Amino acid sequence: MITKCLFPVAGYGTRFLPATKAMPKEMLPIVDKPLVQYGVEESVEAGLTEIGFVTGRGKRAIEDHFDTNYELEHQIQGSGKEILLDGIRELINKSTFSYTRQTAMNGLGHAILTGKSIIGDNAFGVVLADDLCFGEGSGVLAQMVKLYRQFRCSIVAIEEIPSSDTHKYGVIAGESMGDGLYHITDMVEKPTPEEAPSNLAIIGRYILTPDIFEILENTKPGKGGEVQITDALKIQAKNSRVLAYKFKGRRFDCGSISGFVAATNYCYQKFFAEESSDKVVPLTKSFK
User: Fold this and answer.
1) Is the peptide bond before 18 cis (omega within 30 degrees of 0)?
2) What's the CA angle centered on 101, arms 95 and 102, to 5 degrees?
3) Which of 66, 83, 202, 249 is most buried, judging by how many CB atoms fall within 10 Å of its CB?
4) Alpha helices in the chain (DSSP H)
5) Stretch 53-61: mean pLDDT, rounded?
6) What mean pLDDT is predicted for residues 50-78?
7) In-domain check, residue 163
8) Among positive and negative, which fits the CA dihedral 260, 262, 265, 267?
């Protein structure tokens, strides 16, 4: 069983200043739902209902969002607007939420290591909320959980990118196992196009086995002076096995303004079947 999912949400979101000066970037809305809620919905759909957040200063709004607001609910009780809270109420009822703080911004690897107290000795998912993903048939994390049950090892989600963008991602080299699955033989964090071993980039979805924590504890700062999860996964791949999965679906980089706008347009067109100026039409995304 894999039931835990970690959300590293301590970053400053500087690409969206001044909007993120006092509001977490994960709370930026895609139409009428914050980015982080889409990620939690994807996690719950995959059966990962024990949600852990690695937070930082100024992130209290995330904790408040996944809690009951009695004053607000009292004010809209019995009105047509009450339906707008159905999705978040369902998430709150189906999930548990835990929080710990990352006191220094030392990279994604350090953020994941900070979540060790929440995860314990368990395999777990990791979702980066500013990578907004929509799977085909089932969510991206659900696709990866299915693979984990078969292979029982760490798995990273990948997608093909232009060679000019390799400096933004961790890039893998691997041996194809068929059906979009690769056995990783090497990883490079943010390589130049000339250094990149392929055009297959790691995006913000991971399934990690608990031995990653011991590796992270002994991983020295890498690119940018930060503890990189890519460096730790590279060691794990040499010690045992790490797979990469070219997921079925679509991903938007909502950490960039262009990706955020594209995601907003996509969600509006996909989920709003009708538009009316005098009728409340909630944006809902069903999940199992």
Assistant:
1) yes
2) 125
3) 202
4) 35-45, 60-65, 70-76, 86-94, 108-114, 116-119, 140-151, 212-217, 229-239, 257-271
5) 92
6) 90
7) no
8) negative
For residue 85, is it within any domain? yes
3-class DSSP assignment, residue 125: strand
Q: Is residue 43 part of a domain?
A: yes
Tokens of 99: 């929080």
Q: What is the pLDDT of residue 275?
A: 53
pLDDT tens-digit series, residues 114-126: 999 999 999 999 9
Q: Are 146 and 153 in contact (CB under 8 A)?
A: no
* Res. 48: pLDDT tops 50: yes
**Helix (H/G/I), strand (E/B), else coil: 185:** strand
C-alpha R_g of the chain: 19
CATH number at 29 reads: 3.90.550.10
In a domain, 177, yes or no: no
Report yes or no: 125 and 50 within 8 Å, Cβ to Cβ.
no
- Distance between CA atoms of 8 and 136, rounded to whole angstroms? 25
Among 232, 243, 162, 242, which Cα is nearest to 196's? Answer: 162
How many structural domains is the chain composed of?
Answer: 1
> What integer is the mean pLDDT of 165-169?
92
DSSP 74: H
Res 208: pLDDT: 97
Query: Mean pLDDT for the chain?
Result: 90
Given a contact cutoff of 8 angstroms between Cβ atoms, the answer to whether 93 and 14 are in contact is: no
Amino acid at 164: S
pTM: 0.90
Cβ-contact 153, 212 below 8 angstroms: no
- Give the C-alpha separation, 39 to 44, whole Å: 9
Range of the domain at 133: 4-158+203-221+243-271
